[in-house]
Structure formats: C-alpha cells, structure tokens
Design brief:
globular; 7-stranded mixed beta sheet; 8-stranded mixed beta sheet; alpha+beta; 750 residues
Length: 750
C-alpha cells in the first residue's frame, strides 16, 4: 500500500511562465485565468528555475497514541523574486488514510481548505502535466487533495505556514506504519535548508520494534510503552519519504515483518526482532574478557583513552556476570587466574589494575587470545572477548592464516570476539576474519577519534544479552533464500535485530525463533503472511541488495577477486542503485565492455556516461578505491573494512550509500555533483539520471533493444497513462524517461 504525499505550491503571478523550484511547482496563469487551467510557458521568457521559491525549514512534530497520529508541521518559505506571488497550496490526501482533522495557519491566520475528491483532483494533476509540462504530480494521480489559496507572498520575504492533521494509522501483522512526505527532490531546485522530526509514541501495549528503514534516526526508549524518535539534517535533497514502523506485543520478543513483491518475481522480506524495553526482561548472565594491547605503540593518548573505556565497561557489568582482564605486549598476563564475579571487591581490584597499566614492549596477539580463550567456561553463558589493539602481531605466531587456524581450534565454546582496531598500522584482514569467524562485530578507531567513546557506545549495546545462539526456522510452505546476515548475532536488551532475504511462494506461515536464555533453549512462534503482491515497501529491495553487495565485497576483500562474485556485485549494484566507490568502478568497467561488444547501446549506459563527463580524476579515484579494497592496512584498508561492514549490516537506506561523500566532483559549470546522486528506486528497480534522462536499469537486460518512442504530452503519452497504471510512477520522474514494461523498452522524450 503506497502512502506518500507532498506539499506543493501552485503559484500564480502575473507573468506566464512555469517551472520546478524550491520544493514546489510554480505554474503561472494569466491574471484573470481560471487557476485550474494552466497556460503553456512562453519560450521567450527566462528560465523559471532562476526564480525558485525556497524552503527555509521544515519542522515536524508528531504525537502517536495507539494508532492515532497527530502531525504538526511548521514550514518557512522564502520568495527570492522581486514580484508579489499568489497561489494554491496543494496537499494530496494519503491513500487509504482516514483524516480526522485538517487545519492550516498562514502567517498566524486560520485558513479554510477546500477538499477535492479524486476525480476533481485528477483533472488538476493532468492539467498541470498538459499545460505546465511537468509530470511530477502524476505520483498523486489517483488521490484527492486539499487546496488552500495563499495570498500574498511578498517579494524577498518569508511566508510561515503551520499545518496539522490527524490520521488513523493502519496496522498489519502487528506492525504499525507512519509515513511523512519527504520525497520532494523532483520538486526542488535547491535542497531543504533544515529538516527536523520529533515523533512521540505512546502505546497501550508494550512497544517492541521501533525502526526507520529510510533514515538514520535516534530512538529513545523511555518506558516499555513509550518512545521518542528524532531526526535532524541540513541541506537535505530528499529522494524518499520518511517511514517509521513500530510493533506492539506483550510477549518476550516482538517481530515485525514487511514484504515487497512484484507479480511474477521472487519477493523480498524484512524482519525486525526486538525484546523491547521491559525492565523485567530477563538478562542473560555473560562471561566477558577484556583484552588490551599494552605494547609500546599504545603509549600516550591511546592508552589513556583505552583505560577509561575499560573502566566504563567494568562499571557497567551486570551483577551475575563474570569477567577478566588480559593485558598483552611482549607477553600476556591476566588480572585473575579464572573468570571472577562482578562483585564490588573484584571491580575495585580491576580499577586498580587498569590504572597501573603501562605501554611497553612488542605485540603478542597469539598469547593474549590463547589466554582469553583458555579460562573455565560455564555452559549456557555467552562468552565475549573484547579485543583492543593498535598493531600487527610481532611476537609469537605472526602468520595471519596460522593464527586464525589456531584461534578457531581453541575457541571450543563459540566465544564472540569483538575487535577494536586502533589507528591504521594494523592488519584489518586478521581482525575482520576474527569477527566473521566468531559472528561478532569489528570497529575501527581512527587517530582523530576517541577510543573511550567508541568502546563505551559499543559496550552499552552488548551489555545485556537477552537471547543467544539464535536461529530462525521458516515454514516449509515458503521457500526463503539469500538471507542476510548469514549467521544471526545475539539479541540484546533494547536493540533491534534485522534480517532480510528473498522468498518464493506466498501465504500465511509460521516462523520459529529459537535461542538460549541462561542455558535453557526457548522457542517462540510467530504467525506471518508472505504476500502474493505488495509494491508499497519499495525500500526493501535496495536495502536487501546493499547487504548482499556488502557481503560479496567482503568475500572479495578478504579472500581475493572471483569473477562470479564480481559479476553478481555488478548485477545487483546496477539493478538496485547501490553506487559506492567500489561498485561504481565495477559498473563503469562492465558498461565499457558491454558497449564495446555491442551488447547494449551507448545511450543505455547507467553510470559510465556521467563518469566520462566528470574530471579525469574522478575515474581515477573510483578505480583507486576498488584497488584499495584488497589492502590489509593503512587508511585505505581501514576505510574499506569499515564501509563494507556498514553495507553488509545496513538497517536503513542512508547506510546503503556508504562512501558517497568521496564521489563528489565539480562539473564544467562549477556545480557540485555526485556520482551516487540522481538515483531513484521505483517498483523494485533503480532509475539513473543521465543528462536529464531517467534510465531504468532493466533496459540493459532486455534482449530486444527496439525502442517504442512516445513524445511527452502527446495523445499516445496520455493513452499510455490511462491504459497502463503501473507506468504512472515511471512517468512521474520527468519528461525524458527510458524504461522497460512488458519486455519492451519505452522511451518518453520531449
């Protein structure tokens, strides 16, 4: 179910020009013309994009109680022209939403809105397409709207609008969705200066999952029934709506499942598991050994910060935990002979031990991990090692593969080894293989970063395990594949565990969650519905693809290049728009070969044309980034490890764009561009903007490359719109679009 809308100004000034600007559509009729009928632009007038209506700020506060959401928006617009404007504020009504209240203040004065049904609204949308030659509003073609007349918008001045509305949120399979319209990129000549969200959730039942797959948000869990979600950003050129999901469940663990499925294709699923925030939740007692590198290279600030981080961890041990500290340099020594309880006496001894640590000597990783893994184990307790080092092994076993083999043999209790690489003079492949081998996480602390903050933030997340050794079993009626992560991590208090994959078949089924709680195996069954068709959650395919690409890149990085893996990375990156410094090089090289072999037409290239138009240094940079993928140490080795892990653990679309800041360049006009920009995901596929032509990634896979060309705004164009509703989303991209429908390439041209 698609639920998306946007705030649109249809502005009327007494000059007949039209255009896209500042987050709103400017369409300008004659002074005495019916505002529902838009005159075509005069070619002799200047480009209307020189007169943008800018969005200064967009502040959103939402209060959700149960399934009722009241949203209040404060927006500040600026008219940078020397002309007084008047116009209409159009608010498309969200599909299937129940609007309980709609109020609007314009500069503090309450203004009445006119409600138009879908049929009347459709005529306005179509007229704007026909007359203003702007197809963006086709996105709302089948929706009604509220319309409010705004006058005056004074020249060189701000206009303040306050808007509030109440809606009833829909609940599916125990999961409630809240959507806010932030997909305004195609209406905007400039980014939004400032965007902020504050969403308060108050549920009569226990809140379990609270997650946002579209944006990086902060979730503050206040009680088991209440949470606050925050998001703030500046200079936002948003290409996706803001979506928030939460589930309510009085059980021990909650699950949310979302589907995406096109007819005739395998589906995608997104699971989120969470134990919630219940203070009574049983926390699993754990054994944790802190292993600290005390070699000479750690002297100074690094050692001081690491010691503070250790002190924080010691203070946050749970009463039933056991712990030990191993320091290593030329040799390794432990605070206790065996793991000890986290009593106040033992913690006091640990604090004294940490304060007296000094950095001197070499780096004996073999002896340190051997000592950490050889302590006594209690069955049913998760075993954690938190390993902090700034160097490569120089004493004892120094061979990467031999050391890993030895650790694997000695790790008989499935101990998780969480690694913290400090600085850049270390072997990232060794640390990363350690974490992969033990189903843990890796973290790197760069020279200008604070070790204490990174370690303490991490430890807060893993301090309270709820369930360990987790497995999910799927009903036999549904076949699942390509599930990421491959091995499930442990579940911790207050956290979310997300899982994504593909499925074939459809229907209701049962998923069984299995894991250990304090040595006792527990099973929890969840009833879910793998839908036959659902095209509303279109964020799932690119998010799944990001994880898959990240996993494959990690295999290439750690084990060497393999042509089958490279080919799959290229296919997925193209199809889903996963453009990173690593994938962009592979896409460009692949397109170079396809064009050379005449397998695709040059105009069907997705990325290579843009790279060729960019300065030569850009192509060199992305080639160097891919080469850096295999480096074990240095800045590039650490960066590759960090960014690839972010991809293969991506929980939201922002994390799927890792490394995009390194892909910026100046075009010939001096404007800042980004190779990772100009990509939209629609109906499970990516569209790339090349020289103002939107190209469907699927055009490269069509065997018959014959193109059906249809002129924008022609009768054939509107016939296509009427006869093929599924094409509406593609047509809304712009006046020049090339896409695949019914195994045929269709090209819309001006």
């Amino acid at each position: 179910m698609k639920r998306s809308w946007v705030f649109i100004f249809v502005l009327c000034i007494f000059l007949p020009f039209t255009g896209m600007a500042g987050g709103f559509i400017i369409v300008v009729p004659d002074k005495h013309q019916n505002p529902d009928v838009i005159r075509p632009p005069r070619p002799d007038l200047p480009n209307p994009n020189l007169f943008p209506l800018e969005v200064r700020s967009n502040q959103v506060e939402t209060k959700i109680k149960g399934q009722s959401a009241n949203t209040s928006i404060k927006q500040v617009f600026y008219n940078p022209t020397n002309r007084q404007l008047e116009g209409y504020f159009l608010f498309p009504i969200p599909e299937n939403a129940v609007i309980g209240k709609f109020t609007m203040l314009v500069n503090g004065v309450e203004t009445e809105a006119e409600m138009l049904d879908a049929q009347k609204a459709k005529k306005i949308y179509e007229d704007i397409v026909r007359r203003a030659k702007d197809p963006a509003l086709l996105e709302y073609y089948n929706k009604g709207l509220f319309r409010v007349r705004i006058f005056p918008i004074l020249p060189r001045s701000e206009q303040r609008i306050s808007l509030s509305y109440t809606e009833t949120l829909k609940k599916e399979d125990g999961t409630i969705e809240y959507t806010f319209p932030l997909n305004t990129e195609k209406y905007s000549a400039k980014p939004l200066n400032q965007v902020s969200f504050k969403i308060d959730i108050d549920s009569p039942q226990q809140l379990k999952n609270v997650f946002c797959p579209t944006h990086e948000v902060e979730v503050n869990r206040k009680t088991e029934n209440r949470a606050t979600v925050g998001y703030e950003a500046t200079q936002v050129r948003s290409d996706r709506d803001f979506k928030l999901y939460y589930s309510v469940d009085d059980g021990k663990v909650g699950i949310s499942m979302l589907n995406y499925k096109n007819p005739g294709e395998e589906g995608y699923f997104f699971f989120s598991l969470s134990p919630g925030f219940d203070q009574k939740t049983e926390v699993v007692a754990k054994d944790v050994t802190f292993v600290l590198d005390a070699s000479g290279s750690m002297a100074g600030d690094k050692m001081d910060q690491a010691k503070k981080a250790l002190e924080f961890c010691i203070e946050n041990l749970n009463e039933q935990d056991r712990f030990n500290i191993v320091r290593f340099s030329t040799e390794a020594t432990a605070l206790f002979e065996e793991l000890q309880s986290a009593s106040e006496t033992n913690r006091r001894r640990a604090r004294t031990y940490v304060k007296e640590l000094r950095a001197i000597g070499g780096t004996n990783i073999e002896e340190a991990l051997d000592l950490a893994l050889s302590t006594d184990k209690k069955q049913g307790r998760p075993q954690f090692v938190i390993f902090m080092t700034d160097g490569k092994p120089t004493i004892g076993e120094t061979s990467e593969e031999a050391l890993l083999s030895e650790i694997k043999t000695k790790n008989t209790s499935d101990t998780r080894i969480f690694t913290f690489g400090i600085g850049t003079t270390l072997n990232t492949h060794l640390l990363d293989k350690l974490t992969a081998m033990t189903q843990a996480y890796r973290t790197y602390v760069l020279p200008d970063e604070d070790i204490e903050i990174k370690v303490s933030n991490f430890y807060q997340k893993v301090a309270s395990p709820i369930m360990t050794d987790i497995k999910l079993h799927f009903d036999k009626s549904i076949s699942v594949s390509s599930v990421y992560p491959k091995e499930l991590p442990d579940l911790f208090k207050g956290s979310n565990l997300t899982l994504m994959g593909r499925y074939s078949g459809y229907g209701e089924g049962t998923i069984t969650l299995e894991g250990y709680v304090n040595g006792k195996k527990e099973k929890i069954n969840f009833e879910v519905d793998f839908e036959r068709r659902n095209e509303s959650n279109n964020f799932i395919p690119p998010l799944w693809a990001a994880r898959c690409v990240g996993h494959l890149l990690d295999q290439i990085r750690l084990n060497g290049e393999n042509q089958e893996l490279v080919a799959e990375v290229v296919r997925l990156a193209k199809k889903h728009g996963i453009v990173t410094p690593y994938t962009s090089y592979l896409i460009v090289e692949d397109e170079r070969q396809l064009v050379s072999n005449r397998q695709i037409a040059p105009q069907n290239q997705l990325l290579r044309n843009r790279v060729m138009e960019a300065p030569e240094a850009v192509e060199e940079d992305i080639e160097e980034s891919f080469t850096d993928l295999s480096k074990k140490e240095g800045n590039s080795g650490v960066r590759a490890s960090t960014e690839v892990q972010q991809l293969n653990k991506a929980d939201n679309l922002a994390e799927a764009r890792t490394g995009s800041s390194r892909m910026e360049y100046k075009d010939k006009a001096g404007h800042t561009q980004n190779l990772a920009g100009g990509i939209q995901n629609i109906r499970g596929r990516a569209f790339y903007n090349n020289a103002n032509v939107w190209i469907d990634a699927n055009v490269q896979e069509v065997k018959n490359q014959k193109v059906n060309r249809i002129q924008f705004n022609s009768q054939a164009y509107f016939d296509l719109l009427t006869n093929n509703p599924e094409a509406i989303d593609y047509l809304a991209l712009g006046q020049n679009v090339r896409f695949v429908m019914n195994d045929q390439i269709i090209e819309i041209f001006e």
